[in-house]
Design brief:
Elements: E1 2-21, E2 27-46, E3 52-56, H1 68-79, H2 81-87, E4 90-95, H3 106-121, H4 128-135, H5 142-147, E5 150-155, E6 159-162, E7 170-176, H6 183-194, H7 202-211, H8 216-222, H9 226-231, E8 234-235, H10 238-244, H11 246-256, E9 262-265, E10 272-276, H12 279-293, E11 298-304, E12 311-317, H13 319-324
Parallel strand pairs: 1-8, 3-4
Antiparallel strand pairs: 1-2, 1-12, 2-4, 2-5, 5-6, 7-10, 7-11, 9-10
Helix pairs in contact: 1-2, 1-3
The protein binds cytidine-5'-monophosphate (C5P).
Length: 325
């Protein structure tokens, strides 16, 4: 049987705007998402048993039914039960590099890799839009993670419009490893504090949603104008998360003091990212901010914007098949 190793990049949000409530209890969002080169590698293999087995050395990653990866396999098994009976369950090994519960869509990107991987292993021939439709059952960010790159995400986050690739911008990620933010709680706080600003009329929601396409940030992305992109970063969730976590706010300020292109919290946090024009600058700023804040719990990564989502790293035959030859 075939096995696949897939690369699953993390994402940052260059723009996250909360528009209003949705009838399904989620929020209507307008986002611009960006993949980065920091990512996990997932090894997938049909195991011919009735089990879904997840392996990961990171103790923060659950290996049971609560892992989004497990839910992704179950979704595909239910949807394509006949095909799935021919292959049985899956063994999935996750090499975890993306920090967990960080606002970087690590779990969503892993689930996206499983959808892409199963499509290949079971030879389903599903297109990216078909995989994106399925992904909505798993989480709002999974659709973006499939195709990745630079894109507008609207609706719950699952409606994707690709934008021109950004390649030459360096990204510093920084996260306190003793800090995690609950995404549902961040949105709940936002609703409690800002629901008086929510747009309720469908026509107004559509107008706000459409506005992004002709907005300054999309123009700056088309022009690959890194200075403007850095200047135009915005995230509504900062309004509720930063007052609660002053250390995150201080971290953003520390980056800004080093004249980066821009610095902001990603998603619901607590990861902060800073944009730089060169690798050299990104490394220098990292060294300086690390020294200034001097906290053993603060982790840094220097990475780059990346023009793709899930990609196949390698393809092989499982050792069981090889032995049978
Ligand atoms: O879709 P996902 O499971 O990633 O969302 C996590 C949580 O974030 C949801 O349970 C919800 O509380 C909040 N959310 C939201 N509106 C969105 C996306 C997420 O309120 N569009």
């Amino acid at each position: 049987m075939q096995s696949y190793s897939l690369f699953a990049p993390a994402k940052i949000n260059l723009h996250l705007e909360v528009i209003g409530d949705r009838p399904d209890g989620y929020h209507e969002l307008v986002m611009i998402m960006q993949s980065v080169d920091l990512g996990d590698t997932l090894h997938l293999r049909a195991n011919g048993t009735d089990q879904i087995r997840i392996f990961c050395e990171n103790p923060q990653v659950p290996l049971d039914k609560t892992n989004l990866v497990y839910k992704a396999v179950r979704l595909m098994q239910k949807k394509y039960s006949k095909v799935s009976n021919n292959f049985g369950g899956l063994d999935i090994t996750i090499e975890k590099n993306i920090p967990v519960a960080a606002g970087l869509a690590g779990g969503s990107s892993n689930a996206a890799a499983v959808l892409v991987g199963i499509n290949l292993i079971w030879s389903l021939g599903l297109t990216q839009p078909e995989l994106r439709d399925l992904s909505a059952f798993l989480g709002s960010d999974v659709a973006f993670c499939i195709s990745g790159g630079t894109a507008i995400a609207t609706g719950r986050g699952e409606k994707i419009t690709p934008l021109p690739d950004l390649k030459d911008i360096w990204v510093i990620l920084a996260k306190y490893n003793n800090l995690s933010v609950s995404t549902p709680r961040a949105y709940k706080s936002y609703r409690e504090q800002f629901n008086h600003l929510y747009v309720t009329d469908l026509e107004d929601i559509n107008e706000r949603t459409d506005h992004i396409h002709s907005g300054d940030l999309v123009r700056a992305i088309s022009e690959e104008n890194a200075d403007k992109i850095g200047h135009l970063l915005m995230n509504d969730l900062e309004k509720v998360v930063l007052p609660q976590y002053p250390v995150v706010s201080n971290l953003i300020d520390a980056f800004k003091a080093h004249n980066v292109l821009g610095a902001m919290m990603s998603g619901s946090g607590p990861t902060v990212f800073a944009l730089c024009k060169t690798q050299k600058q990104a490394q220098m700023v990292t060294t300086n901010v690390k020294k200034e804040i001097n906290d053993a719990n603060l982790d840094f990564w220097v990475t780059k914007m990346c023009p793709h989502g899930i990609t196949v790293e390698s393809k092989g035959q499982s050792s069981k098949d090889k032995g049978q030859r």
